[in-house]
Fold:
Amino acid sequence: MSDLYRIEGLRVDLPLPGDLLSALLPIRRPRLTILDQIDLAIAPGETFGLVGESGSGKTTLARTMLGLAAPAAGRLVFRGADLTGRAAWAGLRRGSAMMFQDPVGSLSPRMRVGALVTEPLIIAGRPIADRAAEAQRLLARVGLPPGLAGRYPHELSGGQARRVCVARALALDPALIIADEPTAGLDVSIQGEILNLMADLGRDQGVGFLVITHNLAVIRHSADRIGILYLGRLVETGPAAQVFARPAHPYTASLIASEPNPDPRRRRADLAIRGEIPSLLRRPAGCPFHTRCPIAVAKCRSIDPGPRAVAPGRMVRCHLAEDIPQPRNPAEEHSR
Amino acid sequence: MTAPLLDVRGLSLSYGPVRALRGVSIDARAGEIIGIVGESGCGKSTLASALIGLPAPGATVAGEVRIAGEDFLALPEARRREWRGARVAMVFQDPMTSFNPVLTLGDQLVDFQHRSPVPRAEKRARAAAILARVGLPDPDLALRRHIHELSGGMRQRAAIAAALLMRPMLLVADEPTTALDVTMEAQIIHLLRELRAEHQGAIVVITHHLGVIGELCDRVYVMYAGEVVEEGTVDEIYHSPRHPYTRALIDCDPAHIDGPAGRLPTIPGRLPDLTGTLRGCAFQPRCPRAGPRCLALAPPRVAFGPTQAAFCHEAGR
Structure:
C-alpha cells in the first residue's frame, strides 16, 4: 500500500510516577496504558485531523509516531518501511517534522530566525552553500519578509512565530508534518493564514499533515479525514465532511453539539454532554464512554465495542452507531 | 428604566506612552450578561483590570467606572479593597493560578468571607453550599482538597463559586472558558447562564471567542486597538454588523463558515502602534472601505436603532 504513515494495533504504556523507593530500587514500576488498539493510515498529501479532549492521548500518539515514546505493541510503518531498526527511524527523522504547540517555547531564545530555520539542515548534515540565502528561501516559502531573519524569537508576533515553526519544519522537505495545536493562541483573524499555508503545502507539494487539536472548527475546514480519540482509543475515523455531517459515535455527536455557536439564534438550551473524561487510572469497564453516553444500554457497561465499518472508509467503536441522535445540520437549517 | 449597574464613561488608560484604552464607554444593567470581544492587544484585559479597580501600577487612568452610581476608581484604595469581592468579583482564565496551591479550597473559601461577621462553621457551610450550587460533586470532600487535585473544569467551577461567595453586584469573567476543552466549555457556559437567573447583578464576559458571546451574552461590545468600535445586542452584532472590523472578525471565525471553506478569510495587516496620538480611525489601515475622512478624522458614533451603534465614518452609508 502507498500509505505515507501507517499504524497498526499500537499500544503505548507509560510508567506511573513512582515514589522515592521505587526510584532507588530496581522494582518494575506499574505501567498505565495510554493508547491502545490504534489503527491509522495517512496518505501522501493528506491532512488527517486528530481530535480529543485533554487526557485522551493525542500528544502521546504524536510523540510515539516520531519515536519520542516507545510503543509497547503494534507496528509503525513510514513510507513502506517498518520502524524497527535505527536506519528506519533515521529515514523517518529525515522525512518528517514536528510543529510543537508553543511556537515561541519551541524556538531557542538565543538564536536568530535565520539560524533557527536552517538549523535542521545542519543537524541532518545537508551541505548548504549559502546559509543566509537558504534562510531567505525558507522564509519566503512561508510568506515572511526577509528582514525577519535577523530577529530573535521574542521579537516576533504569535503568527510570525508560527510561520517560523512552519519554515523550520519545511527545511528538510518532509513528507509528513505533525502539527500539535497549530492555531492555539492565535487570533481568529490570523489563524486562517496558518491553515491556508498548510493547505497550500499539502496541495502543491504533497506534504502530509497530522493535525492534533481540540478545536473542531479548525479541523472542519482543514482536514480531509479525522479521527476522534477518547481515553486512548480511536472511537471513530472517517472522511471529515461525512463525520461532521453524520457522526456515528455518540461522543463525536456530543463534541460537535458542544461547540459554542456564534449565532445567537442557534443557541442551544440543553447540555450535549455531562460529566468529565474519566481518569485513565479508572478506565470504565465495557465501552469507555458509557459513563457519559446519553444512549448507553446494559451491554455498553460490560462489553467493549470493537471497531467496525459503518460505511466505506468509516470506522466506529459503538454498539449503537446506527441509532445515535444526529446533530442539527447547519446547511439544512439555513435553507429552512 | 433603571440606571445601569455598571456605567463606564470615557475610560482611558495609558501605560507610559502606550495608550491601551481610549475613551471606552460601556454599561450593564442588573441581570444582564454583556460581552467584550476583541483580539489580543485590543485592551480587553486592561479593561477587566480597570473594572475591578486594579489597573497595573504606574498606569494613568482617566474617566469613570461607576458601579451602582459610585465612581469605583475615585474611591480611596482602602474602600476599593472593601468593594472587591463584595461588590465586584472576577473569574480569571487560569483557575490554577487564582487559588493558593498550598491551602485547601475550604480554607480559602472561608478566608474569602473574612469581612462577614458570622462564625467560621457557618462560613464553611456557605462555602460547601456554593460549591454544590456550581456543580461540584461531594462539596464537603472538595473543601478538603487542594486545587491541583481538581480537574480543569472543576477548578473553573470552584473559581466561579469563590467569585460568587460574597454575592457581588458585578461579576467580571476574563476568558472563563479559554483553558477548557469543548465539553467543559459548554458546561461552564451552561452554568453561567443558570447563575444569571439567580444572581441579581450584572455579568461581564471578556473573550476572544465569538462562540462564547453567541451562546452566553445579551449585548456585546466589540473592541479594536483600545476602543469600542461597535455595540449592540448579540443578534444585531452577529446578523447585521455595521463596523467593517466586526464584519471581518465574524467572517474569519471558522465556526461561522458552513461546510468546507477552501480558503479561510483573514484580516490583512496588523494592529496600529498605540504609542502617541492616532489620527483618524484606528482600523483605517486594514479597512476595505476606508476613505479620505477615515485618515483625518476620528470616527463618529453612528446609532442604528436604540441598541446598536458603530464608530465609523462609512457605517451609515
Remarks:
- Chain B touches chain A through 47 residues (CB under 8 Å).
- Chain B is about 35% helix and 25% strand.
- The mean pLDDT of chain B is 90.
- The radius of gyration of chain B is 20 Å.
